Amino acid sequence: MSARKRLARGPEETARKSFRPSSANLQVISRLLDLSIGQQNHELTFGPSSQTKERIGRRVSSTLMKLAAAGSSSPSKWDTECLINLALTHPKADLDEYLQPFIKSPLAHRQVMARTETQRRYVQTMEKTDLVFNLGPAGTGKTYLTVAMAITFLDSGQVSHIIITRPTVETGERLGFLPCDLTEKINPYLRPLYGAINNLIPYEKYARLAERQLIEMAPLAFMRGHTLSQTFIILDEAQNTTRTQMKIFLTRLGPCSRTVITSDPGQNDLPGGNPAGLKEAVALLANIPGIKICHFSPANVIRHHLVRAIINAYDNANNHQITASEKKP
Asked: What residues does 112 pair with on adjacent strands?
């Protein structure tokens, strides 16, 4: 194998867009793939490494150049990390199709991109399935993509309004009595959902939609007694639902409605003794036509690359504990 291999060639301005500032994207490619990279004007070369890593580096660099040539903004280090992870987990994926707008809605002020193969399949499943369960660890884009799809359905007239709910369960600590009204009490639990919406819709637009009750957020306890017709319903953090709560929620589905249930089974905050509703619902409903179960793995995490390593470390520790307990007489 030669000491250096020519990697990619493109117009000088495109190369500058792809790899500035201070070749930050090249540094990401070098660090994550353990490659030595050289750059002369707009020509890139790789130092000795495995053919697989050199091939991935070549593909990622070429995609970054095309992305830079097509848009006004420079690809970010995060874009580069996502492309590398995609190439590692799905070697046959067409990288040029990624980091391009995937969910489009005039209502949203930013374009939503599918950054992993699983995200693409999840979006396609939501488009054509009435009830979807989504199970996966934090950082896989579950809530964000679901909210984006709900906004698209509202904007296209496929539903008349959106309802977003989640159980109000404290994460390992007791907050005690909060001296405020009901809205102020539940806002801390719904704040991650507000974050996703505000990232997609300008606040002024959201405020008008909320005032007209086209987008509503409520604790899960408020679902009892409602029949939700022509509605896109999102249940977030569903791993914290009890069996009773899950059954009540699932039976709210009315005509021309779409329901998506997102969850992270590894972060169950239910108080001891309360049977979890998510596991039972998935087991009972998985084979019913019109219901789909989507699974995200740690490989689909699109936060900092260390988050994938952290989740894997915890999962491995849990697996060792389970194995050890099974061996005890």
From this structure: 103
